[in-house]
Amino acid sequence: MLNRLFSRWSGSPIRLFMEKLRLTKIAIKEWRTKKPRQDRLIEIKEIERRDALDLRQRARLKWAIEGDENARFFHGLINSNRRNNFIHGLSVNGLWISESSVIKEEAVEFFANKFTNPSDTRPAFRSNRFMKLTQEQADFLESSISESDLKSAVWDCGSDKAPRFWKTIKGDFFAAVKHFEESAFFDKGCNSSFLTLLPKVDSPLCFNDYRPISLIGCLYKLIAKILATRLKQVISSVIGSNKPLSFKVVASLTGPLIASEILSWAKKNRKQTFLFKDDSTRRSTR
């Protein structure tokens, strides 16, 4: 079915790839409604196994033990997450709003203003003292993307995010990536993404209590992963000895404690430091 579907169309490589993905989703939905349920035991077990994997993925339990099929537990966790993430109402300019259509409109306006650059001017850093990439490193960053680069990025996503059918889609996928590499442009509508809000506190009352999450498409994500992988290999050569540190903080109080310890150490040893505060209310995740 997929081979027949993928052989019908022509056009811009990026638009072609995205259109095939859209039609594939429609074809899969139609196929699922028409295919009769099989009664053989082996197929029933396979369906149950896939259902358990789907529940684990939706529950986002990375620590789930393979083979654990406690469906009641997973269903309860999913329902709990739905209740916690559902927005029943919010305070906007001192008024409590509970109508979903109004909440959506206010959310669009709030976050559009939040992430709009207030000024066209950007700071410039001009100095001969900055370390630079070598010509060989620069050529490496700008080298052509190969099919092996794309395959490595896909395989790095994990088996739950890229389950199979690489042979079927790799030709169109690679053509779309090469088209972007040559044009540095996404066709209109081919880079759209879904936005959702996750609560930052237990009882959110306003939009500031939510963190926007951008669910980007696979094409954008894999192109970004390829570029990030290349940058990771050369970035260390342009960072000085006073390297910035980042910590993966679990508890909310751990970050301030670490920062306090670093400041105390720098003050005691008379070390030069550069401090800046990150505005977490403007942070989003892609």
What topology does this entry show?
Elements lengths: L1 H4 L7 H22 L6 H19 L11 H15 L4 E3 L2 E3 L2 H15 L20 H7 L5 H9 L10 H18 L10 E6 L10 E6 L2 H17 L19 H15 L18
Antiparallel strand pairs: 1-2, 3-4
Helix pairs in contact: 2-8, 3-4, 7-9
InterPro entries: Retrotransposon-Effector_Assoc
Organism: Centaurea solstitialis
Protein name: Reverse transcriptase
Please give a structural write-up.
This is Reverse transcriptase. InterPro entries: Retrotransposon-Effector_Assoc. With 286 residues, the protein is mainly α. It is built from 10 helices and 4 strands, in the order ααααββααααββαα. The strands form 2 sheets. A two-stranded antiparallel sheet has the order 1-2. It has a two-stranded antiparallel ribbon with strand order 3-4. β1 and β2 form a beta hairpin. α7 (147-155) packs across α9 (218-234). It is extended. Mean pLDDT is 74; it is low at 62-67.
